[in-house]
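Lab channel / #folding
Pinned by the channel admin:
"Please post every new chain as: sequence first, then the C-alpha coordinates as a reply. Keep commentary short and put observations after the output so the thread stays searchable."

First post following the new format, from NK:
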Amino acid sequence: MERMRIAGVVRVAAAAVVSSVLLTSCGGSGDDDGDTGDGGGARKAGRTDARAAEDLKRIPDVGDRLQSRIPKNSRQVVAVYGEGRNSADATVVLYTKSAATKSAATWKKTRSWPAHNGKKGWTPNHRENDKRSPVGVFTLSDAGGVLADPDPARGTGLPYTKSAAFQAPHYWPKTHWHDFDHVIAIDYNRVKGTPPNDPTRPQGQSKGGSIWLHMDHGSGTSGCVSLSKSGMRYLLRTLDPKQHPVVVMGDKEALKS
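Reply from TO:
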Protein backbone atom coordinates (compact mmCIF):
# COMPACT_ATOMS: atom_id res chain seq x y z
CA MET A 1 0.00 0.00 0.00
CA GLU A 2 2.82 2.40 0.88
CA ARG A 3 4.49 1.63 -2.44
CA MET A 4 1.25 2.44 -4.30
CA ARG A 5 0.89 5.71 -2.40
CA ILE A 6 4.44 6.78 -3.34
CA ALA A 7 3.85 5.90 -7.00
CA GLY A 8 0.73 8.07 -7.00
CA VAL A 9 2.67 11.01 -5.57
CA VAL A 10 5.33 10.63 -8.25
CA ARG A 11 2.72 10.65 -11.02
CA VAL A 12 1.08 13.79 -9.62
CA ALA A 13 4.46 15.51 -9.31
CA ALA A 14 5.36 14.61 -12.89
CA ALA A 15 2.07 16.02 -14.15
CA ALA A 16 2.70 19.22 -12.22
CA VAL A 17 6.11 19.62 -13.85
CA VAL A 18 4.61 19.21 -17.33
CA SER A 19 1.87 21.75 -16.55
CA SER A 20 4.36 24.27 -15.19
CA VAL A 21 6.40 24.06 -18.39
CA LEU A 22 3.31 24.67 -20.52
CA LEU A 23 2.05 27.49 -18.31
CA THR A 24 5.29 29.40 -18.88
CA SER A 25 5.10 28.83 -22.63
CA CYS A 26 3.41 31.03 -25.19
CA GLY A 27 0.09 29.33 -24.52
CA GLY A 28 -0.07 31.27 -21.28
CA SER A 29 -2.99 30.46 -19.02
CA GLY A 30 -5.56 30.13 -21.77
CA ASP A 31 -7.24 33.40 -20.78
CA ASP A 32 -7.95 34.61 -24.31
CA ASP A 33 -11.49 35.81 -23.55
CA GLY A 34 -12.94 32.46 -24.59
CA ASP A 35 -12.89 33.56 -28.23
CA THR A 36 -14.27 30.71 -30.31
CA GLY A 37 -14.23 32.44 -33.69
CA ASP A 38 -11.90 31.07 -36.30
CA GLY A 39 -10.08 34.40 -36.45
CA GLY A 40 -7.49 35.43 -39.00
CA GLY A 41 -5.12 32.53 -38.43
CA ALA A 42 -7.69 29.84 -39.14
CA ARG A 43 -9.50 31.37 -42.10
CA LYS A 44 -7.26 30.05 -44.84
CA ALA A 45 -4.74 27.25 -45.13
CA GLY A 46 -2.33 29.39 -47.12
CA ARG A 47 -2.28 31.54 -50.20
CA THR A 48 -0.12 32.87 -52.96
CA ASP A 49 -0.55 36.02 -55.02
CA ALA A 50 0.91 37.83 -57.99
CA ARG A 51 3.74 39.19 -55.89
CA ALA A 52 4.90 35.66 -55.13
CA ALA A 53 6.35 35.41 -58.63
CA GLU A 54 8.47 38.54 -58.22
CA ASP A 55 12.19 38.38 -57.62
CA LEU A 56 13.00 40.40 -54.51
CA LYS A 57 16.41 41.81 -53.64
CA ARG A 58 15.50 41.91 -49.95
CA ILE A 59 12.69 40.92 -47.59
CA PRO A 60 9.88 43.43 -48.28
CA ASP A 61 8.91 46.04 -45.68
CA VAL A 62 11.86 45.25 -43.42
CA GLY A 63 14.26 48.12 -42.72
CA ASP A 64 18.03 48.07 -42.73
CA ARG A 65 18.33 47.48 -38.98
CA LEU A 66 16.59 44.08 -39.00
CA GLN A 67 17.50 43.26 -42.60
CA SER A 68 21.17 43.35 -41.58
CA ARG A 69 20.51 40.77 -38.85
CA ILE A 70 19.37 38.13 -41.32
CA PRO A 71 22.36 35.77 -41.63
CA LYS A 72 24.09 35.89 -45.01
CA ASN A 73 23.73 32.11 -45.33
CA SER A 74 19.99 32.08 -44.62
CA ARG A 75 17.88 30.98 -47.58
CA GLN A 76 14.54 30.70 -45.78
CA VAL A 77 12.86 33.56 -43.92
CA VAL A 78 9.53 33.38 -42.10
CA ALA A 79 8.39 37.01 -41.90
CA VAL A 80 5.69 37.88 -39.37
CA TYR A 81 4.05 41.21 -40.17
CA GLY A 82 2.06 42.42 -37.18
CA GLU A 83 -0.79 44.81 -37.94
CA GLY A 84 0.12 47.22 -35.16
CA ARG A 85 2.10 47.64 -31.95
CA ASN A 86 -0.97 46.84 -29.83
CA SER A 87 -2.68 44.46 -32.24
CA ALA A 88 -2.88 40.65 -32.05
CA ASP A 89 -3.44 40.27 -35.81
CA ALA A 90 -0.62 39.40 -38.17
CA THR A 91 0.35 37.79 -41.47
CA VAL A 92 3.02 35.12 -41.82
CA VAL A 93 4.95 34.98 -45.11
CA LEU A 94 7.55 32.41 -46.14
CA TYR A 95 10.34 33.74 -48.39
CA THR A 96 12.93 31.50 -50.03
CA LYS A 97 16.15 32.59 -51.68
CA SER A 98 16.83 31.43 -55.20
CA ALA A 99 20.16 30.10 -56.40
CA ALA A 100 22.64 32.85 -57.16
CA THR A 101 22.55 34.14 -60.72
CA LYS A 102 25.04 36.28 -62.58
CA SER A 103 23.76 39.27 -60.67
CA ALA A 104 22.74 38.06 -57.20
CA ALA A 105 20.48 35.65 -55.39
CA THR A 106 16.92 36.90 -54.95
CA TRP A 107 14.04 36.21 -52.57
CA LYS A 108 10.69 34.82 -53.62
CA LYS A 109 7.43 34.90 -51.71
CA THR A 110 6.44 31.25 -51.39
CA ARG A 111 3.29 31.18 -49.25
CA SER A 112 1.40 33.34 -46.74
CA TRP A 113 -1.15 32.80 -43.96
CA PRO A 114 -3.28 34.97 -41.66
CA ALA A 115 -1.90 34.68 -38.13
CA HIS A 116 -1.96 35.97 -34.55
CA ASN A 117 0.70 37.21 -32.16
CA GLY A 118 0.69 38.28 -28.51
CA LYS A 119 -2.75 39.49 -27.41
CA LYS A 120 -1.28 42.85 -26.32
CA GLY A 121 0.83 43.24 -29.45
CA TRP A 122 4.61 43.60 -29.80
CA THR A 123 7.63 44.79 -27.83
CA PRO A 124 11.39 45.17 -28.47
CA ASN A 125 11.97 44.24 -24.81
CA HIS A 126 9.88 41.16 -24.07
CA ARG A 127 9.34 40.32 -20.39
CA GLU A 128 7.76 37.31 -18.73
CA ASN A 129 3.94 37.41 -18.90
CA ASP A 130 3.74 40.77 -20.71
CA LYS A 131 1.47 39.15 -23.35
CA ARG A 132 3.50 40.76 -26.14
CA SER A 133 5.58 39.06 -28.83
CA PRO A 134 9.27 39.97 -29.10
CA VAL A 135 10.41 42.03 -32.09
CA GLY A 136 13.54 40.79 -33.81
CA VAL A 137 15.32 38.23 -35.97
CA PHE A 138 15.63 34.74 -34.49
CA THR A 139 16.84 31.41 -35.81
CA LEU A 140 14.55 28.38 -36.11
CA SER A 141 16.28 25.21 -34.93
CA ASP A 142 13.86 22.75 -33.32
CA ALA A 143 10.28 21.54 -33.59
CA GLY A 144 7.90 19.14 -31.88
CA GLY A 145 4.37 18.67 -30.64
CA VAL A 146 1.69 16.34 -29.37
CA LEU A 147 1.21 14.92 -32.87
CA ALA A 148 3.81 12.98 -34.82
CA ASP A 149 6.08 14.38 -37.48
CA PRO A 150 3.72 15.37 -40.33
CA ASP A 151 5.94 13.76 -42.96
CA PRO A 152 6.96 10.37 -41.50
CA ALA A 153 8.30 9.01 -44.81
CA ARG A 154 10.78 11.85 -45.37
CA GLY A 155 10.83 13.43 -41.95
CA THR A 156 10.64 17.12 -41.11
CA GLY A 157 13.74 19.12 -41.82
CA LEU A 158 13.96 20.49 -38.28
CA PRO A 159 14.66 18.01 -35.46
CA TYR A 160 11.20 16.97 -34.21
CA THR A 161 10.22 15.80 -30.72
CA LYS A 162 6.85 14.10 -30.34
CA SER A 163 5.68 14.10 -26.72
CA ALA A 164 2.48 14.21 -24.68
CA ALA A 165 4.28 16.79 -22.54
CA PHE A 166 3.32 19.42 -25.13
CA GLN A 167 -0.39 18.88 -24.44
CA ALA A 168 -2.20 22.04 -23.39
CA PRO A 169 -3.94 21.59 -20.02
CA HIS A 170 -7.62 20.69 -20.38
CA TYR A 171 -8.64 23.33 -17.85
CA TRP A 172 -7.83 25.84 -20.62
CA PRO A 173 -10.70 26.69 -23.00
CA LYS A 174 -11.39 23.83 -25.39
CA THR A 175 -10.44 26.08 -28.31
CA HIS A 176 -6.83 26.00 -27.01
CA TRP A 177 -6.44 22.25 -26.54
CA HIS A 178 -4.74 21.72 -29.91
CA ASP A 179 -2.46 24.77 -29.85
CA PHE A 180 0.63 22.64 -29.42
CA ASP A 181 -0.17 19.74 -31.71
CA HIS A 182 2.70 21.11 -33.83
CA VAL A 183 5.19 23.76 -32.70
CA ILE A 184 8.40 25.31 -34.00
CA ALA A 185 10.67 26.89 -31.41
CA ILE A 186 11.67 30.50 -32.03
CA ASP A 187 15.21 30.81 -30.69
CA TYR A 188 14.46 33.59 -28.22
CA ASN A 189 16.05 33.01 -24.79
CA ARG A 190 16.41 29.25 -25.29
CA VAL A 191 19.10 26.64 -25.90
CA LYS A 192 19.28 25.54 -29.52
CA GLY A 193 19.32 21.82 -30.17
CA THR A 194 16.85 21.02 -27.38
CA PRO A 195 13.11 20.22 -27.59
CA PRO A 196 10.95 23.35 -27.82
CA ASN A 197 9.56 22.80 -24.31
CA ASP A 198 13.00 22.70 -22.67
CA PRO A 199 12.58 25.32 -19.90
CA THR A 200 16.22 26.51 -19.87
CA ARG A 201 16.44 30.30 -20.32
CA PRO A 202 20.02 31.56 -20.74
CA GLN A 203 19.04 35.24 -20.25
CA GLY A 204 17.03 34.51 -17.12
CA GLN A 205 13.39 33.88 -16.29
CA SER A 206 12.42 37.56 -16.34
CA LYS A 207 13.16 37.80 -20.08
CA GLY A 208 10.45 35.25 -20.82
CA GLY A 209 10.78 32.33 -23.17
CA SER A 210 9.05 29.39 -24.84
CA ILE A 211 8.16 31.61 -27.77
CA TRP A 212 6.89 29.35 -30.55
CA LEU A 213 5.19 29.18 -33.88
CA HIS A 214 2.16 27.03 -33.14
CA MET A 215 -1.40 26.27 -34.21
CA ASP A 216 -4.01 28.99 -34.09
CA HIS A 217 -7.02 29.10 -31.75
CA GLY A 218 -8.65 32.17 -33.26
CA SER A 219 -7.29 34.99 -31.09
CA GLY A 220 -4.10 36.48 -29.62
CA THR A 221 -1.52 34.42 -27.76
CA SER A 222 0.61 35.03 -24.69
CA GLY A 223 3.63 35.89 -26.85
CA CYS A 224 3.89 33.30 -29.62
CA VAL A 225 2.86 33.45 -33.27
CA SER A 226 0.00 31.16 -34.33
CA LEU A 227 -1.25 30.06 -37.73
CA SER A 228 -3.41 27.35 -39.25
CA LYS A 229 -2.69 23.64 -38.92
CA SER A 230 -2.05 23.36 -42.64
CA GLY A 231 0.33 26.33 -42.41
CA MET A 232 2.27 24.73 -39.58
CA ARG A 233 2.49 21.43 -41.42
CA TYR A 234 3.69 23.20 -44.55
CA LEU A 235 6.44 24.97 -42.62
CA LEU A 236 7.46 21.74 -40.91
CA ARG A 237 7.79 20.00 -44.25
CA THR A 238 9.61 22.93 -45.86
CA LEU A 239 12.01 24.48 -43.35
CA ASP A 240 15.44 22.94 -43.71
CA PRO A 241 18.35 23.40 -41.27
CA LYS A 242 20.72 23.35 -44.26
CA GLN A 243 18.99 26.53 -45.47
CA HIS A 244 19.52 28.25 -42.08
CA PRO A 245 15.90 29.38 -41.57
CA VAL A 246 15.11 32.43 -39.46
CA VAL A 247 12.01 34.33 -38.42
CA VAL A 248 11.82 38.12 -38.80
CA MET A 249 8.95 39.31 -36.62
CA GLY A 250 7.35 42.48 -35.34
CA ASP A 251 4.65 45.04 -35.97
CA LYS A 252 4.89 46.74 -39.36
CA GLU A 253 6.24 49.99 -37.96
CA ALA A 254 8.95 48.25 -35.93
CA LEU A 255 9.95 46.08 -38.89
CA LYS A 256 10.50 49.13 -41.10
CA SER A 257 12.47 51.11 -38.51
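NK: The chain has one domain: 2-256.
TO: also worth noting, The helical segments are 2-23, 64-67, 229-238, 252-256.
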